[in-house]
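# nightly structure sweep
# worker-07 picked up a monomer target from the shared queue
# config: single-sequence mode, recycle default, output format = C-alpha cells
# input follows
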Amino acid sequence: MTGGTGDDATGRDALARLFPGHDPTSAAHRATDWAATPLGPVDTWPAELRAAIRTVLPSTIPMLVWWGPELVQIFNHAYTPMLGDKYPAAIGQPAAQCWPDVWDAMGPLADGVLAGGGSAHGDRTMLYMYRRGYWEETYWTFSYSPIHDDSGAVVGVFVATSDVTGPVVGDRRLALLRELGDLSIAEADTAGDAARAAARVLAGDGADLLVGQIHLYDHLFAAVGEEEQGGSAPGELTLVASFGDTMPDGLTETHRRPEVIEALRTGLPTRITGLGDLLPQTRRPEQLAGPPPVVDAVVLPLLATGRSRTVGVLVLGVSPYLPLDEPYRHFIELVGSRVSTALTDVLAYEAQRRRAVALAELDRAKTEFFTDVSHELRTPLTLISAPVQESLADERDPLPAVQRQRLELVSRNVGRLRRLVNDMLDFARIEGGRLDPERSPTDLAALTTGVVESFDHAVRQAGLTYRVDVDPLPRTGHVDRDMWEKVITNLLSNALKYTLHGGIEVRLRGDAEQVTLTVTDTGIGIPADQQPLLFRRFHRVPGAVGRSAEGTGIGLALVQQLVRLHGGTVAVRSVQGEGSTFTVRLPYGEAGGEPAADVLRRPDRAAYPALEPATATPGGGFGAAAVAHPRDTPTVLVVEDNADLRAFLSGLLAPHYRVRTATDGRDGLASALADPPDLVLTDMMMPRLDGTGLLRELRADRRTAGLPVIVLSARAGEEAAVEGLRAGADDYLAKPFSSEELLARVRSHLELSRLRSHEATWRAALIDSLQDAFAVVEPDGTLVEANDAYFRLIGSERIELPAPTARWWPDAELEPAQHHRIVAAFADALRVGSGRVTLPMRHTDGHRIWVEAVYNSVREPRTDRRLYVATLRDVTTEVGAVARSEALATLASRLAGASDIAEVLDAGLGELCEVVRGARGVAVALDGAGAPVVVEAGIGLSARVREVLAGLRPDGEPYLDRDAGGRLTGVGTRIEPGAEGGVWLEVDPPRPVAAVDLPLLRQLCAALAQALVRARAYETQRAVALAMQRAMLGPVELPTGFAVRYEPAVRPLEVGGDWYDVVPLPGDLVGVVVGDCVGRGLPAATVMGQLRNACRALLLQAKSPAEVLGALDDFARMVPGGGNTTVFCAIVDRSLGVLRYSCAGHPPGVLMHPDGSHELLDRAGSVPLASVAVSGRPEAGAQLRAGSTLLLYTDGLVERRRELIDAGISRAVDTLAVGRGLPEGQLVDRLCRDLLPEVRDDDVAVLVYRHREPVVFHATLAAEPAQLHPTREALRDWLAELGVGASDAEAVLIAVGEACANAIEHGYRFAAGGTTTVRGRLRADRLEIEVTDTGGWRDTAASGFDRGRGRLIMARLMDEARVEGSPTGTTVRLVKRVSGDS
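# output follows
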C-alpha cells in the first residue's frame, strides 16, 4: 500500500519525499496506508500539512502533528519511545483513540486550540498512562500550538512535548534522602530509636515507598556492657519499626520469608514478588479509594561499620506505577545505606558510651594504685634518707672524702626520687578530689624571689642569661605556699632543661584583681600541633631535644592542676626554634587558715637535679685518682646525659681503662667517628640522639660497625633487652646494675674485640698475598676492601676505603651503554648472588680496560649486610680481539643490505662512529661518474673538514687531531688509498689517544673500500637494468577513466611476470589486458615483455578478444617459458557502454555498478595459454552503466595460502563496493592497501576503469548575430562543468563560433527567420560538436568561401573538421581530443 493515487510509483515517490528519513519511524510512516486514514492519499494533503511534517520529522526533540477535526497523528522518531506499546498503531490514528487513558485531561486542551482558543501548555503535569501493560505514573511538559491554513482557520495542532518523569521523581527521591541523611544520634539513643526515626522519615514518601518494615537482631538491645560475640549466633530478628497504611498479607511474618533469609546470608538485596495484583486497564488509579496495591517489595540488608555480619533488614514495598529500573533500585539502595549509616552512628555511640564508663573505672583504679604506691614508697625512702643525712652531718666522726662524695650522690638522688613520689601523690590526690590548697597570707613577691634566686647558679652554669623582674604587689596573696613553690620550680626546671642558648626571664606583676607570673625562655620551642597536648599528664613532646631525656611528663600537668585549685589559669605561647612563654594568672584569693610569717623559701636542692650538680674528683670519677695507663690500654667511651651517673661510670672504669665521656648521643657519635674507642657504654634515653639512633649510626659506618656496644637502660625486663639487642647492641644491662657485673661485661667484650682484631689483621695479610685482584664491594658499588693487585689493575695508588667504585666506571654521559652494563651487572648480582661477568672499567690514565670478575654474595657477621667478594682478571687483550671481529662482522652485515654508494657510506660511517664511542662524522667518496657522494652524521662538510680530508695521507694512515692537553679531538683517514675523499670523525669531549682502537679503524676502512668498489659496479648494472625494465612496463599516460598499479615481488626490480596494457583503438574503443606469466623476477619479465607486445599488436589489428587470445595462444607456444600464462582480454566501447571479453585461465574481472550490485566476468573462461590445445576461445559481453567500475587484477591481489581464491575475490568485491565512489586513482590505492599482504612472494597488477556516459549539449539559436554571444556563454559553462582544460575549451569556442557565424551569414542570407542547432557530446576524452542549419548556402566557388579563414581556423583548432552540405541544409562536424583541468 502506498497511500498515494492509483499510480503506485507516484505514490511511493511522494511518500519518499515527505518521509525521507532512514530511521524506523520514517519507514513506518512510508509503509502506512494513508488512503485508509481520515487524511486520505498523500498527494491530496494540503501544503500546510506537508510543511508541518517537514518541520517535525528532522527534529531531535519529541514532536508530532495532530491534523484535522479527528486530530490524526504524525510524529518524529524522537517521539516514538513515548508511545510504548501504542507504536506503530499510533501512526495515522486519531489522538482520542490513541490516548484514551489521558484524553479526559488532554482532550479539552487540544479541542480548545482547534477551536481557535490559542496555544496551551503544561509544566510537569502528572498523568497516569497505560502504555506498557500497567498503569504508569508520568510527568510531562508540553505545548499545543495552532496550525493555520491560508484563510486563517485552525486546521491542526503542533505538539512539542518532553517526558520529565525522571527529573520530577528524582527531585522527590533526593529530598527524601536529604531528610534521611539529617538524622542525628541526638534523636536516638538506641538502635531501635534510630530505626523508628528512619521509619517516620520514610513514611513521608508514599509515592515511591508504599510500606516498609525494619527488622533488627535482638542482640542489639542487650544491656550496657554486653558485646556481640564474634562466633556466637546472631539471635532472632525483631520488627522494631514499620510504616504504611495497609501491610500486605505476604509481609505479616517477613522474617521467615526465603528472600529475607537470602539477603541476610549474602548481604545483597533481594526482591519479593506476587504480593498483590496490578490494576487492570479498565480501572484507573484515580478511582481507588485507598492506597495503591503493593505488588513487589525489596529486601535490603542493614550493615553497620565494624560488625562482621548484617544487623537486620529493611523491607520496602515499591510503587506499582513506576518501573523498578536502575534509578529506582539505586534510590532504594541509597535508602538502605542511609538507614545503615544511622544505625552505625547509634551503635558506635553506644559502644563509645560503654568504653567511656570502662575507662572512667580504669582511671579511678589507676589513681588509687598511684596513691597507695606513693605512700608505700615513702617509708623506704625515709629509711634511706635519714641515715645518709645523719652520716653527712656527723661532725664527731666525719666521713672520709671519698665516702662523703658517694653519700652525697645518694642524698641527691634520694631527693629526686622523693620529689617524683610527692608529685605522683599530689597528682593522684588532685585526680581523686582529695587535695585542697591550704591558703595563708603570703607576700608573693618575696616568696617568688626566693624560689627564683635558687636557680641563679644553675642557669649561669649552663651559660644562659638570667633576668628576674619581680615588682611589689598591691595586695597580699592567699595561696598554698608549697603549691606556689612547685608551680614556679616546675616552670623554671622546664625552661632550664630545654633552653640550650640565650636566656631565661621571670616576671611577676599584679593589678587589683590578679597576679601574673611569666616565665620566658629562648629554648627550642614547642610545635604548634603539640601545644594543645602540653598540659596532659604523662605527655612528652616527641623529638624534643633538651639537656637530658629524664622526666615523667607530669610536671606541666601538675602545674595546671595546682593553678586551677587556686582559681587561676596557665597558658603557653611558643614558636618552634625561637622559645616559649608560660603565663600563670592567679587571683589573690581569700584567707583560708592561720596567718603565717613570711619565710624566704627555697626549693629542696636535692629534689631538683638541675640545682645540685654532680661533684667529681679531678680524675673524672667519684674518688678516682688520675691513673697512668700503658699505651695499649683499651679506651671506653661513656655516653650518658645524667651527670651523676656519667661521673660514677667514669670513676668506676678509670682504674682499668682509658675513659672518654659524652653528654648525649650526638656528642658520642662525633667522638667515636673522630677517634674510634675500643668499646662504647651508652644510655638509651638521651637528648638530641638516643641510644637506638647512636647504635644505628655506629653500625652504618664501617669504621665503627665492629665496635662492641653495651647498653645501659632504665627499662628492665626481657622485652626491653630483646629490643636493645635487636637494635645492634652487643650487651644489655638494666638499671640498677652491679658494679662488678658491669666491669665483668666490659672486660669480656674487650677481650672478644681483641681476638676479632687479630683475626682481621691476619686476613688482610692473606688477601694482599693473592696474585689476582681481590675486592669486597657493597650492593651500591662502594669498595670496602681491596688488595694491592686490585690497585695495580686500575693503575692507582692505595686510597682510603671505603670509596665508591664509580670513579673507575665508564662515563654515564659519554658511554651510556657501557655504564648501563655495569649498573645491570650489579642488579643481576643482587638477584642471583653469584656469577661470572666481564665488565668495562676506566684505567686511572683514562683508557679502557676490561676485567673478568668472579663474585659471590656473603653476609657480614656483625651487621648482617650483604657484601660481594670478587676476584678480577685483566682480559682487555681478549676482549679487544673479540670486539674487532664483531665490529668487522657488524660492518659486513650492514654492508650486505647496502645497494648504492650512499648506503655503503652510511653503513660504514655508522659503524666507525660506534667504534669511536659516540663520535660525529662525515664520509665522502666518488661515484662512477666522479661526482662526490657525501654522508653526514652530526656534522656537515665544512671548509675545515674539506681541508682535513684533502690533506690526508694517500696510504690511509689515520690523522689524529689533539688539543693542548694531548687528548684526541678528531680522527681522519682515507677510505680508498690514493682516491679522493675519506672519513672525518670528531670526538667530543676529548679523550686519551689510547681510548681509540686505531688498528680496528684501518681494518674497517679497508672493508669499506671493497664495498665501495662493489657498489659502483652494482649501480652501473642497475641503471642499465632499470632502463630495460621500464621499457617493458605498460603505458604511463592512460585514457580518461583508467588507473593502474603494478607491484613487483622482487625488489629492486620494477617488473616481473604480471602485466597490464591499455590500448586506444579506433572508434572510441579501448583494449584492456591483464596477464600473468609463470615465475617471477627477470626471467618471467622477459617472457611477459614478448607476450605483452604481441597482444598489443593483435588488438591494433582490430581483432576481437577471443581472436586475440587464439592468436596469442599460438605465439606463446613459440616463446620459452610462455606456457600456462593466464590472460584476461577485453575491449571497451565507451560510446555504447558495451564490454566484450575473453579469459584464458585468469581470475574473473569484477564489474561494480553504482547501486552496489556487481557481476563477475566469468562467462568466457578457458584454459591458460599454451597449455591444452583448444579449437576456439569463448567470448562474452557485459553492459556498462554510467559510473560502473571495472576491476581487472592478477592472482597476487586475492590469493592466500591455505585459502580458497573465492575468499580473496569476495574481499576484493567488498573493498570495491565500499570505495566505488572514490576517484579511480584513490580506488586503486585503497584496493592495494586493504588487500595486499605485508609479506608476499607474487607480482601484482591492478587495473580499474570507471565508465562515463557521453555528456550532451544542445542549443537552438535564431539566425541572428546577436544570438551568438548567449550561445557561446552557454557552451563555455558546459565545457567548464565537464572539466575541459582552459586551452581546449577556448579552441572549441572559437571553432564553434566560426561555424555558427558561417551558418547565419551564408545559410540564411536570402531566407531570414531560420534557426541553427548546436549539439555537443563528450565520449571519454573525445568531444564531438555538430552545427546544423536548414538554409540554402550559396555556391562555394561563387561566394569565395574557400578563400575565407573559417575552415582554416576550424581545421587548425580541432582534431577533425568536416563540412557536409545537402539540399536540406549544412552540417559542420568538429572533433577535439580534450584533457582535464591542470
